[in-house]
Protein backbone atom coordinates (compact mmCIF):
# COMPACT_ATOMS: atom_id res chain seq x y z
CA UNK A 1 0.00 0.00 0.00
CA UNK A 2 1.35 3.43 -0.93
CA UNK A 3 1.64 6.21 1.65
CA UNK A 4 -1.33 8.15 0.16
CA UNK A 5 -3.38 4.95 0.35
CA UNK A 6 -2.39 4.47 3.99
CA UNK A 7 -3.27 8.09 4.78
CA UNK A 8 -6.64 7.73 3.03
CA UNK A 9 -7.40 4.64 5.09
CA UNK A 10 -6.46 6.53 8.26
CA UNK A 11 -8.18 9.88 7.65
CA UNK A 12 -10.78 9.11 5.00
CA UNK A 13 -10.50 9.61 1.24
CA UNK A 14 -11.81 13.18 1.37
CA UNK A 15 -8.83 14.17 3.54
CA UNK A 16 -6.17 13.14 0.99
CA UNK A 17 -5.83 14.95 -2.33
CA UNK A 18 -3.89 13.44 -5.22
CA UNK A 19 -3.16 14.44 -8.77
CA UNK A 20 -2.31 17.86 -10.22
CA UNK A 21 -5.91 19.00 -10.65
CA UNK A 22 -6.77 18.45 -6.98
CA UNK A 23 -3.48 19.67 -5.52
CA UNK A 24 -2.85 22.70 -7.77
CA UNK A 25 -3.98 25.24 -5.17
CA UNK A 26 -1.45 23.80 -2.69
CA UNK A 27 1.55 23.27 -4.98
CA UNK A 28 1.73 26.74 -6.55
CA UNK A 29 2.37 29.96 -4.65
CA UNK A 30 -0.26 32.69 -4.95
CA UNK A 31 1.89 34.83 -7.29
CA UNK A 32 2.49 31.90 -9.64
CA UNK A 33 6.29 31.98 -9.35
CA UNK A 34 6.91 28.61 -7.70
CA UNK A 35 5.26 25.33 -8.61
CA UNK A 36 6.36 21.76 -7.90
CA UNK A 37 4.39 18.56 -7.36
CA UNK A 38 3.68 16.96 -3.98
CA UNK A 39 3.28 13.29 -3.07
CA UNK A 40 -0.21 14.27 -1.88
CA UNK A 41 -2.01 16.88 0.20
CA UNK A 42 -3.41 15.82 3.57
CA UNK A 43 -6.13 17.79 5.37
CA UNK A 44 -6.29 16.59 9.00
CA UNK A 45 -9.06 17.63 11.38
CA UNK A 46 -7.19 17.51 14.70
CA UNK A 47 -3.79 17.69 16.34
CA UNK A 48 -3.93 13.92 16.90
CA UNK A 49 -4.42 13.34 13.17
CA UNK A 50 -1.51 15.66 12.35
CA UNK A 51 0.68 13.67 14.73
CA UNK A 52 -0.35 10.36 13.15
CA UNK A 53 0.37 11.66 9.63
CA UNK A 54 3.79 12.84 10.73
CA UNK A 55 4.58 9.47 12.33
CA UNK A 56 3.71 7.68 9.10
CA UNK A 57 5.80 10.07 7.00
CA UNK A 58 8.73 9.74 9.39
CA UNK A 59 8.57 5.94 9.26
CA UNK A 60 8.74 6.04 5.46
CA UNK A 61 11.30 8.88 5.33
CA UNK A 62 8.95 11.10 3.32
CA UNK A 63 9.41 14.90 3.62
CA UNK A 64 6.67 16.95 5.26
CA UNK A 65 5.61 20.46 4.22
CA UNK A 66 3.27 22.25 6.66
CA UNK A 67 1.05 24.77 4.88
CA UNK A 68 -1.23 27.50 6.12
CA UNK A 69 -2.99 29.92 3.78
CA UNK A 70 -0.23 29.69 1.13
CA UNK A 71 0.28 33.46 1.06
CA UNK A 72 4.07 33.37 1.25
CA UNK A 73 6.08 36.00 -0.64
CA UNK A 74 9.29 33.97 -0.47
CA UNK A 75 8.23 30.58 -1.83
CA UNK A 76 8.26 28.99 1.60
CA UNK A 77 4.84 27.36 1.55
CA UNK A 78 5.07 25.22 -1.61
CA UNK A 79 7.34 22.31 -2.60
CA UNK A 80 10.94 23.06 -3.54
CA UNK A 81 12.38 22.21 -6.93
CA UNK A 82 14.98 19.77 -5.62
CA UNK A 83 14.42 16.70 -3.52
CA UNK A 84 11.68 14.15 -2.97
CA UNK A 85 8.06 15.19 -3.30
CA UNK A 86 6.70 16.08 0.15
CA UNK A 87 3.41 15.36 1.81
CA UNK A 88 1.74 18.74 2.23
CA UNK A 89 -0.14 18.97 5.51
CA UNK A 90 -2.75 21.68 5.16
CA UNK A 91 -4.43 22.92 8.33
CA UNK A 92 -7.50 24.61 6.85
CA UNK A 93 -9.91 22.16 8.55
CA UNK A 94 -8.46 23.01 11.97
CA UNK A 95 -10.05 26.43 12.29
CA UNK A 96 -11.79 26.50 15.69
CA UNK A 97 -11.63 29.41 18.08
CA UNK A 98 -11.33 27.31 21.21
CA UNK A 99 -11.90 30.06 23.72
CA UNK A 100 -11.33 33.65 24.80
CA UNK A 101 -10.29 34.49 28.36
CA UNK A 102 -11.05 38.19 28.78
CA UNK A 103 -9.76 38.20 32.35
CA UNK A 104 -6.39 36.96 31.15
CA UNK A 105 -6.52 38.83 27.84
CA UNK A 106 -5.79 35.66 25.89
CA UNK A 107 -7.35 33.49 23.21
CA UNK A 108 -6.74 29.89 22.19
CA UNK A 109 -7.23 28.92 18.54
CA UNK A 110 -6.43 26.10 16.17
CA UNK A 111 -3.67 26.85 13.69
CA UNK A 112 -5.94 26.81 10.65
CA UNK A 113 -7.94 29.82 11.84
CA UNK A 114 -7.80 32.61 9.30
CA UNK A 115 -6.19 35.72 10.77
CA UNK A 116 -9.28 37.83 10.10
CA UNK A 117 -11.40 35.29 12.00
CA UNK A 118 -9.05 35.61 14.98
CA UNK A 119 -9.32 39.40 14.84
CA UNK A 120 -13.12 39.25 14.68
CA UNK A 121 -13.34 36.82 17.59
CA UNK A 122 -11.22 39.17 19.67
CA UNK A 123 -13.40 42.16 18.74
CA UNK A 124 -16.52 40.18 19.70
CA UNK A 125 -14.99 39.85 23.17
CA UNK A 126 -14.13 43.58 23.24
CA UNK A 127 -10.44 42.83 22.75
CA UNK A 128 -7.82 43.33 20.04
CA UNK A 129 -5.51 40.85 18.35
CA UNK A 130 -3.22 43.43 16.75
CA UNK A 131 -1.36 41.56 13.98
CA UNK A 132 -2.71 43.03 10.74
CA UNK A 133 -1.56 42.57 7.14
CA UNK A 134 -2.82 42.64 3.59
CA UNK A 135 -3.46 38.89 3.39
CA UNK A 136 -5.35 38.68 6.69
CA UNK A 137 -8.46 37.44 4.89
CA UNK A 138 -6.66 34.27 3.74
CA UNK A 139 -3.51 33.80 5.84
CA UNK A 140 -3.85 31.32 8.70
CA UNK A 141 -2.70 31.97 12.24
CA UNK A 142 -0.29 29.01 12.21
CA UNK A 143 1.42 30.39 9.12
CA UNK A 144 1.72 33.87 10.58
CA UNK A 145 3.35 32.36 13.67
CA UNK A 146 5.64 30.11 11.64
CA UNK A 147 6.90 33.16 9.73
CA UNK A 148 6.74 35.60 12.66
CA UNK A 149 4.60 37.91 10.54
CA UNK A 150 4.95 41.63 11.05
CA UNK A 151 2.38 43.83 9.37
CA UNK A 152 1.21 47.37 9.99
CA UNK A 153 0.93 47.47 13.79
CA UNK A 154 4.47 46.45 14.78
CA UNK A 155 5.24 50.03 15.80
CA UNK A 156 2.91 49.70 18.79
CA UNK A 157 2.30 45.99 19.38
CA UNK A 158 5.37 44.21 18.03
CA UNK A 159 5.69 41.25 15.66
CA UNK A 160 3.67 38.06 15.97
CA UNK A 161 6.33 36.73 18.34
CA UNK A 162 5.35 39.43 20.84
CA UNK A 163 1.70 38.34 20.71
CA UNK A 164 2.03 34.59 21.31
CA UNK A 165 1.85 33.18 24.83
CA UNK A 166 1.92 29.45 24.14
CA UNK A 167 1.89 26.80 21.41
CA UNK A 168 0.98 23.21 20.73
CA UNK A 169 3.37 21.67 18.20
CA UNK A 170 3.73 18.31 16.46
CA UNK A 171 7.44 17.44 16.35
CA UNK A 172 9.13 15.62 13.44
CA UNK A 173 8.84 12.21 15.13
CA UNK A 174 5.12 12.67 15.72
CA UNK A 175 5.41 13.70 19.37
CA UNK A 176 2.77 16.24 20.39
CA UNK A 177 4.31 18.96 22.59
CA UNK A 178 1.75 20.84 24.65
CA UNK A 179 3.17 24.25 25.50
CA UNK A 180 -0.12 26.13 25.62
CA UNK A 181 0.85 28.27 28.59
CA UNK A 182 -1.36 31.35 28.90
CA UNK A 183 1.18 33.12 31.08
CA UNK A 184 3.04 36.44 30.91
CA UNK A 185 5.67 35.09 33.29
CA UNK A 186 7.04 31.56 33.08
CA UNK A 187 10.70 31.44 33.99
CA UNK A 188 11.18 27.66 33.88
CA UNK A 189 14.09 27.09 31.56
CA UNK A 190 14.21 27.53 27.81
CA UNK A 191 11.17 29.25 26.33
CA UNK A 192 10.64 26.59 23.66
CA UNK A 193 7.83 28.31 21.81
CA UNK A 194 10.33 30.74 20.33
CA UNK A 195 12.07 27.87 18.53
CA UNK A 196 8.97 27.42 16.38
CA UNK A 197 7.97 31.06 15.89
CA UNK A 198 9.68 32.15 12.68
CA UNK A 199 11.07 28.66 11.92
CA UNK A 200 8.83 28.29 8.83
CA UNK A 201 7.80 24.76 9.68
CA UNK A 202 11.34 23.38 9.68
CA UNK A 203 11.17 22.23 13.31
CA UNK A 204 7.53 21.33 13.88
CA UNK A 205 3.92 21.90 12.89
CA UNK A 206 2.04 24.42 15.00
CA UNK A 207 -1.42 23.01 15.67
CA UNK A 208 -2.78 25.32 18.38
CA UNK A 209 -1.80 28.70 19.77
CA UNK A 210 -2.55 30.81 22.81
CA UNK A 211 -2.51 34.44 21.71
CA UNK A 212 -2.08 37.65 23.65
CA UNK A 213 -4.97 40.09 23.44
CA UNK A 214 -5.04 43.82 24.11
CA UNK A 215 -7.69 46.38 25.05
CA UNK A 216 -9.90 47.15 22.06
CA UNK A 217 -9.45 50.75 20.94
CA UNK A 218 -12.66 52.73 20.92
CA UNK A 219 -11.27 55.72 19.05
CA UNK A 220 -9.21 56.07 15.90
CA UNK A 221 -7.71 59.04 14.13
CA UNK A 222 -6.32 58.42 10.65
CA UNK A 223 -4.65 60.75 8.16
CA UNK A 224 -3.19 60.42 4.66
CA UNK A 225 -0.37 62.83 3.81
CA UNK A 226 1.41 63.89 0.64
CA UNK A 227 5.09 64.68 1.22
CA UNK A 228 8.26 65.33 -0.78
CA UNK A 229 10.80 62.84 0.52
CA UNK A 230 11.50 59.95 2.92
CA UNK A 231 13.71 62.32 4.92
CA UNK A 232 10.67 64.49 5.55
CA UNK A 233 8.65 61.41 6.47
CA UNK A 234 11.18 60.70 9.21
CA UNK A 235 10.93 64.28 10.45
CA UNK A 236 7.15 63.96 10.69
CA UNK A 237 7.52 60.63 12.49
CA UNK A 238 9.72 62.25 15.14
CA UNK A 239 7.13 65.01 15.58
CA UNK A 240 4.31 62.49 16.13
CA UNK A 241 6.43 60.42 18.49
CA UNK A 242 7.07 63.51 20.59
CA UNK A 243 3.42 64.54 20.56
CA UNK A 244 1.48 61.28 20.82
CA UNK A 245 3.76 58.24 20.79
CA UNK A 246 1.53 56.23 23.16
CA UNK A 247 -1.37 56.47 20.71
CA UNK A 248 0.56 55.71 17.50
CA UNK A 249 -0.49 52.34 16.09
CA UNK A 250 0.70 52.66 12.49
CA UNK A 251 2.98 54.82 10.37
CA UNK A 252 3.15 53.58 6.78
CA UNK A 253 4.81 55.08 3.69
CA UNK A 254 4.42 54.33 -0.02
CA UNK A 255 5.85 56.11 -3.05
CA UNK A 256 3.99 57.42 -6.09
CA UNK A 257 4.86 54.32 -8.14
CA UNK A 258 3.21 52.08 -5.56
CA UNK A 259 0.09 54.24 -5.34
CA UNK A 260 -0.13 54.31 -9.14
CA UNK A 261 -0.02 50.49 -9.21
CA UNK A 262 -2.94 50.32 -6.79
CA UNK A 263 -5.01 52.95 -8.61
CA UNK A 264 -4.41 51.27 -11.98
CA UNK A 265 -5.12 47.67 -11.03
CA UNK A 266 -7.56 47.75 -8.11
CA UNK A 267 -11.09 48.85 -9.09
CA UNK A 268 -12.74 51.42 -6.88
CA UNK A 269 -9.54 52.81 -5.37
CA UNK A 270 -8.84 56.52 -5.71
CA UNK A 271 -6.17 58.99 -4.65
CA UNK A 272 -7.25 60.59 -1.35
CA UNK A 273 -5.44 63.81 -2.30
CA UNK A 274 -6.19 66.20 -5.14
CA UNK A 275 -2.63 66.52 -6.44
CA UNK A 276 0.27 64.22 -7.25
CA UNK A 277 2.96 63.71 -4.63
CA UNK A 278 6.15 61.64 -4.75
CA UNK A 279 5.58 60.09 -1.31
CA UNK A 280 2.53 59.27 0.78
CA UNK A 281 2.12 58.53 4.48
CA UNK A 282 -0.72 56.79 6.34
CA UNK A 283 -0.82 57.61 10.06
CA UNK A 284 -3.12 55.97 12.57
CA UNK A 285 -3.62 56.87 16.22
CA UNK A 286 -5.81 54.69 18.42
CA UNK A 287 -6.89 54.76 22.04
CA UNK A 288 -9.63 53.72 24.43
CA UNK A 289 -10.62 57.30 25.14
CA UNK A 290 -12.62 59.97 23.39
CA UNK A 291 -12.60 60.06 19.58
CA UNK A 292 -12.86 63.85 19.41
CA UNK A 293 -9.85 64.27 21.67
CA UNK A 294 -7.79 61.88 19.54
CA UNK A 295 -8.79 63.69 16.34
CA UNK A 296 -7.80 66.98 17.94
CA UNK A 297 -4.40 65.56 18.90
CA UNK A 298 -3.79 64.30 15.38
CA UNK A 299 -4.78 67.62 13.88
CA UNK A 300 -2.61 69.56 16.32
CA UNK A 301 0.55 67.63 15.44
CA UNK A 302 -0.33 67.67 11.75
CA UNK A 303 -0.66 71.46 11.84
CA UNK A 304 2.83 71.68 13.32
CA UNK A 305 4.17 69.59 10.45
CA UNK A 306 2.36 71.73 7.88
CA UNK A 307 3.64 74.92 9.49
CA UNK A 308 7.17 73.60 8.89
CA UNK A 309 6.19 72.87 5.27
CA UNK A 310 6.81 69.15 5.71
CA UNK A 311 3.33 68.22 4.51
CA UNK A 312 2.09 69.34 1.07
CA UNK A 313 -1.45 68.05 1.42
CA UNK A 314 -3.42 65.94 3.87
CA UNK A 315 -6.81 64.41 4.50
CA UNK A 316 -8.17 63.19 7.84
CA UNK A 317 -10.73 60.37 7.91
CA UNK A 318 -14.01 61.75 9.22
CA UNK A 319 -15.60 58.38 10.02
CA UNK A 320 -15.03 54.63 10.05
CA UNK A 321 -15.88 54.24 6.36
CA UNK A 322 -13.25 56.81 5.34
CA UNK A 323 -10.71 55.17 7.63
CA UNK A 324 -11.40 51.80 5.99
CA UNK A 325 -11.02 53.34 2.52
CA UNK A 326 -7.58 54.71 3.37
CA UNK A 327 -6.46 51.38 4.79
CA UNK A 328 -7.83 49.61 1.73
CA UNK A 329 -5.29 51.49 -0.39
CA UNK A 330 -2.44 50.30 1.81
CA UNK A 331 -3.65 46.69 1.99
CA UNK A 332 -4.10 46.48 -1.80
CA UNK A 333 -0.42 46.80 -2.68
CA UNK A 334 0.46 43.10 -3.00
CA UNK A 335 -2.48 42.28 -5.26
CA UNK A 336 -1.85 45.38 -7.38
CA UNK A 337 1.84 44.57 -7.76
CA UNK A 338 1.02 41.05 -8.88
CA UNK A 339 -0.94 42.55 -11.78
CA UNK A 340 1.57 45.29 -12.62
CA UNK A 341 4.47 43.02 -13.58
CA UNK A 342 7.25 41.01 -11.99
CA UNK A 343 8.22 42.82 -8.82
CA UNK A 344 11.41 41.57 -7.20
CA UNK A 345 10.20 42.11 -3.66
CA UNK A 346 12.77 42.72 -0.96
CA UNK A 347 12.13 42.66 2.77
CA UNK A 348 14.90 44.73 4.33
CA UNK A 349 14.92 46.41 7.70
CA UNK A 350 17.41 49.03 8.81
CA UNK A 351 17.56 51.35 11.82
CA UNK A 352 14.63 53.75 11.46
CA UNK A 353 17.02 56.67 11.09
CA UNK A 354 18.60 55.00 8.04
CA UNK A 355 15.46 54.24 5.99
CA UNK A 356 15.76 57.28 3.73
CA UNK A 357 19.42 56.58 3.05
CA UNK A 358 18.63 52.94 2.35
CA UNK A 359 16.01 53.85 -0.26
CA UNK A 360 18.31 56.36 -1.99
CA UNK A 361 21.30 54.03 -2.13
CA UNK A 362 19.25 51.00 -3.16
CA UNK A 363 17.75 52.99 -6.02
CA UNK A 364 21.21 53.87 -7.31
CA UNK A 365 22.30 50.23 -6.97
CA UNK A 366 19.43 48.75 -9.02
CA UNK A 367 19.67 51.46 -11.67
CA UNK A 368 23.26 50.41 -12.29
CA UNK A 369 21.84 47.03 -13.32
CA UNK A 370 18.74 48.27 -15.19
CA UNK A 371 18.73 52.04 -15.81
CA UNK A 372 15.47 53.83 -15.00
CA UNK A 373 13.91 50.65 -13.65
CA UNK A 374 10.60 51.47 -11.89
CA UNK A 375 10.69 50.90 -8.14
CA UNK A 376 7.72 50.64 -5.80
CA UNK A 377 8.39 51.30 -2.12
CA UNK A 378 6.18 50.16 0.74
CA UNK A 379 7.67 50.94 4.13
CA UNK A 380 6.63 50.30 7.71
CA UNK A 381 8.49 53.49 8.61
CA UNK A 382 7.86 53.23 12.32
CA UNK A 383 9.87 50.00 12.62
CA UNK A 384 12.42 50.45 9.80
CA UNK A 385 11.08 47.72 7.49
CA UNK A 386 11.13 48.87 3.84
CA UNK A 387 9.86 46.72 0.98
CA UNK A 388 11.91 48.00 -1.95
CA UNK A 389 10.41 46.45 -5.11
CA UNK A 390 12.13 46.89 -8.51
CA UNK A 391 9.72 46.11 -11.37
CA UNK A 392 9.98 44.43 -14.75
CA UNK A 393 7.01 44.50 -17.07
CA UNK A 394 5.83 41.03 -18.02
CA UNK A 395 7.26 41.55 -21.51
CA UNK A 396 10.64 42.72 -20.21
CA UNK A 397 10.83 39.78 -17.82
CA UNK A 398 10.04 37.28 -20.56
CA UNK A 399 13.05 38.63 -22.50
CA UNK A 400 15.50 38.18 -19.60
CA UNK A 401 17.70 35.20 -20.58
CA UNK A 402 18.52 34.04 -17.03
CA UNK A 403 15.67 35.12 -14.81
CA UNK A 404 16.93 33.38 -11.68
CA UNK A 405 20.33 35.08 -11.94
CA UNK A 406 18.75 38.48 -12.62
CA UNK A 407 16.38 38.17 -9.67
CA UNK A 408 19.22 37.22 -7.35
CA UNK A 409 21.46 40.02 -8.64
CA UNK A 410 18.84 42.74 -8.19
CA UNK A 411 17.78 41.56 -4.76
CA UNK A 412 21.36 41.09 -3.62
CA UNK A 413 22.46 44.66 -4.37
CA UNK A 414 19.47 45.91 -2.38
CA UNK A 415 20.26 43.55 0.49
CA UNK A 416 23.88 44.66 0.38
CA UNK A 417 22.86 48.26 1.00
CA UNK A 418 20.76 47.13 3.97
CA UNK A 419 23.70 45.13 5.35
CA UNK A 420 26.05 48.09 5.03
CA UNK A 421 23.61 50.19 7.04
CA UNK A 422 23.41 47.65 9.87
CA UNK A 423 20.18 46.08 8.61
CA UNK A 424 18.80 42.70 7.60
CA UNK A 425 17.65 41.11 4.35
CA UNK A 426 14.53 39.53 5.91
CA UNK A 427 12.32 41.43 8.32
CA UNK A 428 8.89 39.79 8.13
CA UNK A 429 8.42 37.66 4.98
CA UNK A 430 10.69 34.81 6.00
CA UNK A 431 13.48 33.04 4.12
CA UNK A 432 11.53 30.42 2.16
CA UNK A 433 13.24 29.39 -1.06
CA UNK A 434 14.13 32.89 -2.20
CA UNK A 435 16.68 33.91 0.43
CA UNK A 436 18.60 30.71 1.18
CA UNK A 437 21.65 32.12 -0.61
CA UNK A 438 21.49 35.32 1.40
CA UNK A 439 21.39 33.31 4.63
CA UNK A 440 24.65 31.65 3.60
CA UNK A 441 26.17 34.98 2.62
CA UNK A 442 25.17 37.24 5.52
CA UNK A 443 24.64 35.07 8.59
CA UNK A 444 27.73 34.64 10.79
CA UNK A 445 29.16 31.12 10.72
CA UNK A 446 28.64 30.64 14.46
CA UNK A 447 24.96 31.59 14.12
CA UNK A 448 24.42 29.14 11.27
CA UNK A 449 26.16 26.39 13.23
CA UNK A 450 23.83 26.95 16.17
CA UNK A 451 20.79 26.85 13.89
CA UNK A 452 21.97 23.63 12.24
CA UNK A 453 22.56 22.12 15.67
CA UNK A 454 18.98 22.91 16.69
CA UNK A 455 17.67 21.47 13.41
CA UNK A 456 19.65 18.22 13.85
CA UNK A 457 18.48 17.86 17.44
CA UNK A 458 14.78 18.26 16.67
CA UNK A 459 14.61 16.94 13.10
CA UNK A 460 17.56 14.51 12.74
CA UNK A 461 16.16 13.03 9.51
CA UNK A 462 15.79 16.47 7.93
CA UNK A 463 12.24 15.76 6.79
CA UNK A 464 10.45 18.94 7.87
CA UNK A 465 10.23 21.56 5.12
CA UNK A 466 13.65 20.65 3.70
CA UNK A 467 15.52 23.23 1.68
CA UNK A 468 14.10 26.18 3.60
CA UNK A 469 15.63 28.68 6.00
CA UNK A 470 19.00 26.91 6.43
CA UNK A 471 21.57 26.74 3.63
CA UNK A 472 23.21 23.33 3.12
CA UNK A 473 26.27 22.68 5.25
Write up this protein:
- There is one protein chain.
- The chain has four domains: about 90 residues, Uridine Diphospho-n-acetylenolpyruvylglucosamine Reductase, domain 2 (2-Layer Sandwich), CATH 3.30.43; about 120 residues, Uridine Diphospho-n-acetylenolpyruvylglucosamine Reductase, domain 3, CATH 3.30.465.10; about 120 residues, Alpha-Beta Plaits (2-Layer Sandwich), CATH 3.30.70.2190; about 90 residues, Alpha-Beta Plaits (2-Layer Sandwich).
- About 35% of the residues lie in helices and about 20% in strands.
- Helix 8 packs across helix 10.
- The mean pLDDT is about 95.
| CATH class type of the largest domain | Alpha Beta
Q: Which secondary-structure class do the elements indicate? A: alpha+beta
Distance between the termini: 35 Å
Largest sheet: 8 strands, antiparallel
Q: What's the rounded overall pLDDT mean?
A: 94
% residues in beta strands = 15-25%
Radius of gyration: 23 Å
Overall form: globular
Helix content: 25-40%
Quick gist of this model?
The protein is of the alpha+beta class and 473 residues long. Helix content is 37%, strand content 20%. The radius of gyration is 23 Å and the shape is globular.
Produce the secondary structure layout.
Blueprint: H1 3-11, E1 16-17, H2 20-27, E2 40-42, H3 47-59, E3 64-67, E4 87-90, E5 97-101, E6 106-110, H4 115-124, E7 127-128, H5 141-146, H6 154-157, E8 164-170, E9 176-179, H7 193-196, E10 205-212, E11 214-215, E12 219-227, H8 230-244, E13 248-255, H9 256-265, E14 279-287, H10 291-307, E15 313-316, H11 320-331, H12 333-340, E16 342-343, E17 348-349, H13 355-369, E18 375-380, E19 385-392, H14 394-398, H15 403-420, H16 436-442, H17 445-458
Parallel strand pairs: 2-4, 3-4
Antiparallel strand pairs: 1-2, 5-6, 6-10, 7-11, 8-9, 8-10, 12-14, 12-15, 13-14, 13-18, 16-19, 17-19, 18-19
Helix pairs in contact: 8-10, 9-12, 13-15
